[in-house]
């Protein structure tokens, strides 16, 4: 097939599954500008795979999917065997909105990472879909339909040449599905872009489709079928060996679309109202987004109130326990009180400051944060947020992973200092209860003798303390990211990842502390 006026041409496409089984064989198809094409086929036939391929998300190579064929979409043709398709903007079935960002931030981040910053016309067009949504609204507070419109607007702002909708009508009632179909058709017409729409329930989308492609699983091809619900259903049933011909239901008649219109249906807004959103979707630099994620994870991993209470309680208990039991409950208790008081204080200060508090602080920090990281990343995997980021040209590594690792290191050091301070204070108060006649100055001069030799500057050994705390947090955070990024198909898998991440993180922490403490004794 040669490129004519078509917006998208796929030539000689062959796809093999990772297990070697064929999915498509030498298939060609084309989509015109402003054309809406439905892609139908049995479950598991490969519809989503085509969407992923066109959206540049299909892993291609040894041990992965095998793809060959050519793609034409303006400019030079691409070899799909070696290049990722840059043409498709995907509206994911589960919307894949970034639920840590507000509604407007979901749009901004897409606009700021588009190949070309969207102009006012595109912003107006995209934000015209957002009736009833407040810019600062959280994603979780949006209704299902609002999320869908937000997801479509976000994809439009990324300004890819082809729109891909993966089962956009699943879970919608008939009226909503029809309004969505009209919306897709109107967007294609007004933006002069082609749309490929994967659909299981074709009846509601058929009226807006220009053509229908069927995934012929017998011959591993895409074939065009008439725009007729009966014909499509018959073709789908013919591909399903498990359905006997007699059980095939009577054909469905194509219904005309209700003449409701988008404005009446509340889907389109007036241009005047859309301007509120336009002001909000301006250009922000990558550095802005880096700081945005850095701040988000700083709050989440380092200074959330519960975190501070939990770490503070650990430090206070550590300070109390080491002083109380250090003086009271050992075989030399009586002698220690009278003869070895000063040296005991020095020893307790050293052990508490260089071993016990750093270890407890690290374990508490890593255990809590590894759970959060694995849950956060696992949720992003399960809800296709990383796929959406990739499709929107947003690098997760650049923002999310780096923000997590930086905060793991910085946060562990900040909280170490806070923990040392609180544990020392608890020790001092405990000691004062034990020896009410002694001055605090006596405690201070002995307890810190090896930690702050000149009374002001930390001893060099504290460098090793900082190193083991920072290194263990970095390694544990890295492990949590890797574990979180593994394939997730259910919440149960996220739960398992959380448990694994805590175990691996705490084990790494114990090992790093043990090795560095022994090496620097
Ligand atoms: N890693 C893999 N290894 C082997 N086969 C795979 C792999 N991933 C997916 N498949 C298979 O590839 C086929 C295509 O999957 P795809 O999700 O594209 O189907 P689909 O038509 O979108 O299905 P549905 O309509 O049920 O969502 C399925 O049969 C699936 O089992």
TrEMBL record:
Q: Where are the transmembrane segments?
A: 297-325, 345-367, 399-426, 462-485, 497-519
Q: Which domain of life is it from?
A: Bacteria
Record's PROSITE patterns? ABC_TRANSPORTER_1, ABC_TRANSPORTER_2
Gene3D superfamilies listed in its UniProt record:
P-loop containing nucleotide triphosphate hydrolases
Q: Does the keyword ATP-binding apply?
A: yes
Q: Which family does it belong to?
A: Belongs to the ABC transporter superfamily.
- The name this protein goes by in its record: ATP-binding cassette domain-containing protein
């Amino acid at each position: 097939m040669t490129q004519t006026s078509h917006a998208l041409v796929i030539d000689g496409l062959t796809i093999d599954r990772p297990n070697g089984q064929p999915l498509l064989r030498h298939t060609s198809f084309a989509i015109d500008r402003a054309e809406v094409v439905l892609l139908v086929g049995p479950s598991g036939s490969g519809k989503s795979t085509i969407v992923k391929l066109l959206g540049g998300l299909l892993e291609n190579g040894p041990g992965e999917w095998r793809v060959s064929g050519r793609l034409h979409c303006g400019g030079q043709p691409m070899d799909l065997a070696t290049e990722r398709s840059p043409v498709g903007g995907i509206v994911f079935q589960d919307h894949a909105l970034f639920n840590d960002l507000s509604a407007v931030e979901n749009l901004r981040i897409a606009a700021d990472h588009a190949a070309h910053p969207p102009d006012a016309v595109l912003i107006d067009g995209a934000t015209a879909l957002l009736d009833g949504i407040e810019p600062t609204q959280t994603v979780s507070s949006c209704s299902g339909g609002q999320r869908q419109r937000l997801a479509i607007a976000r994809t439009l702002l990324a300004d890819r040449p082809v729109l891909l909708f993966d089962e956009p009508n699943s879970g919608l009632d008939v009226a909503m599905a029809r309004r969505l179909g009209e919306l897709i058709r109107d967007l294609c017409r007004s933006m002069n872009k082609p749309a490929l729409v994967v659909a299981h329930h074709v009846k509601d989308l058929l009226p807006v489709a220009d053509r229908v492609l069927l995934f012929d699983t017998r011959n591993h091809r895409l074939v065009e079928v008439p725009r007729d619900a009966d014909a499509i259903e018959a073709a789908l049933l013919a591909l399903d060996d498990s359905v006997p011909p007699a059980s095939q239901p009577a054909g469905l008649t194509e219904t005309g679309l209700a003449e409701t219109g988008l404005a009446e249906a509340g889907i389109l807004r007036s241009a005047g109202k859309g301007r509120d959103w336009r002001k909000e979707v301006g250009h922000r630099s990558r550095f802005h987004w880096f700081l945005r994620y850095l701040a988000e994870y700083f709050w989440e991993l380092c200074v959330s109130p519960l975190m501070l209470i939990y770490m503070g309680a650990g430090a206070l208990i550590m300070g109390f326990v080491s002083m109380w039991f250090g003086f009271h409950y050992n075989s030399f208790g009586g002698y220690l009180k009278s003869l070895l008081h000063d040296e005991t204080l020095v020893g307790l200060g050293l052990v508490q400051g260089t071993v016990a508090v750093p270890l407890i602080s690290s374990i508490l920090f890593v255990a809590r944060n590894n759970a959060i990281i694995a849950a956060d990343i696992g949720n992003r995997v399960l809800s296709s947020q990383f796929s959406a980021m990739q499709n929107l040209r947003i690098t997760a590594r650049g923002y999310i992973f780096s923000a997590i690792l930086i905060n793991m290191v910085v946060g562990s050091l900040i909280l170490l200092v806070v923990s040392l301070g609180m544990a020392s204070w608890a020790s001092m108060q405990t000691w004062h209860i034990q020896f009410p006649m002694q001055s605090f100055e006596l405690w201070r001069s002995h307890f810190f003798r090896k930690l702050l030799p000149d009374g002001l500057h930390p001893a060099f050994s504290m460098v090793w303390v900082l190193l083991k705390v920072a290194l263990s947090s970095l390694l544990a955070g890295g492990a949590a990211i890797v574990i979180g990024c593994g394939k997730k198909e259910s919440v149960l898998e996220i739960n398992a990842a959380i448990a694994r991440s805590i175990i691996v993180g705490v084990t790494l922490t114990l090992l790093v502390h043990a090795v560095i403490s022994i090496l620097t004794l």
